[in-house]
């Protein structure tokens, strides 16, 4: 018994020592330090660590610390997938589905995606939900989409919560429920989803499924705009232009109007208001727009 305890303790120590380096590599990758991630992951992948194999696939696909090579990336994804890493299976599926290999391969991509979703990967479940809403010309099955989104949402997948919330908002695939919609969209917004921030802000301003509060709703719109959502930027521009829930500020309004227009969201009414500004005000608005950089998601 004593020997067994000693062996167990030794195994736990060696296991934790082995696990720490891949966590360091993943942290480095997330921080954008691809060189450190590569240096740490390579020996781990060679020793059979499936998470390290998947990370090498990500590194070769991104192509920062190494020459971008999608074939090599797919090779590492395949090795990781065969070793049981569902996230690698999802990554392979999305490459086949987004046409990165030169053409979309729906049959292979959707098959791999279903495999990863059944294995419990939240990102795969979320994308299965998207496929079920009518992607790639398929007839939409919103009931099935809601089921997949719900599975991913239960794993705290923010975008899945948002999409499920939209289904409840419209009553597609589920019984319409504004309170449930508001709760799900709000959770996605709080998790940092920029699209959810926009829609949650609108729900709060209107009081649909949630307590109405125009000021708080406008703050959610501003958060979404700062993340780069062009619709939110247009809404924020209008808030500042007409002094709704914020102090009227023509220069700030024009700044957001410029940013929204650059993103393809033109607003003739706001353009007309801009013509009434002084040259100095327009120059300041342009300078603010040029200095803008979208805030990164947490």
Portion of residues in beta strands equals under 5%
Radius of gyration from CA coordinates = 24 Å
The tally of beta strands, per DSSP, is 0
CATH class of the domain at 15-119: Mainly Alpha
Order of helices and strands: HHHHHHHHHHHHHHHH
Helix percent reads over 70%
- At CATH's second level, what is the architecture of the domain at 15-119? Alpha Horseshoe
Which residues form runs of ≥5 with pLDDT under 50? 6-19
Count of alpha/pi helices: 16
CATH homolog superfamily of the domain at 15-119: Tetratricopeptide repeat domain
Shape: globular
Distance between the termini: 47 Å
Structural class: mainly alpha
- Kindly state the mean pLDDT as a whole number? 93
| CATH fold title of the domain at 15-119 | Serine Threonine Protein Phosphatase 5, Tetratricopeptide repeat
- Largest β-sheet summary: none
Please describe the topology of this protein:
Blueprint: H1 2-30, H2 34-46, H3 50-62, H4 70-82, H5 86-98, H6 106-118, H7 122-132, H8 142-153, H9 158-170, H10 178-190, H11 194-206, H12 214-226, H13 230-242, H14 250-262, H15 268-274, H16 279-291
Q: Which features would summarize this protein structure in a list?
A:
single chain; 298 residues; mainly alpha; Serine Threonine Protein Phosphatase 5, Tetratricopeptide repeat; 16 helices; globular
Report a brief summary of the structure:
The chain is an all-alpha fold. The protein has 16 helices and no strands.
Would you give an account of this structure?
It is a single chain. With 298 residues, the chain is mainly alpha-helical. The protein has a domain at 15-119: Serine Threonine Protein Phosphatase 5, Tetratricopeptide repeat, CATH 1.25.40. It has helices at residues 2-30, 34-46, 50-62, 70-82, 86-98, 106-118, 122-132, 142-153, 158-170, 178-190, 194-206, 214-226, 230-242, 250-262, 268-274, 279-291. Helix 5 packs antiparallel against helix 6, helix 13 (230-242) runs antiparallel to helix 14 (250-262) and helix 14 (250-262) crosses helix 16. The longest helix is centred in the N-terminal third of the chain and has 29 residues, at 2-30. The protein is globular. It starts with a helix and ends in a 7-residue tail after the last helix. The model is unreliable at 6-19 (pLDDT under 50).
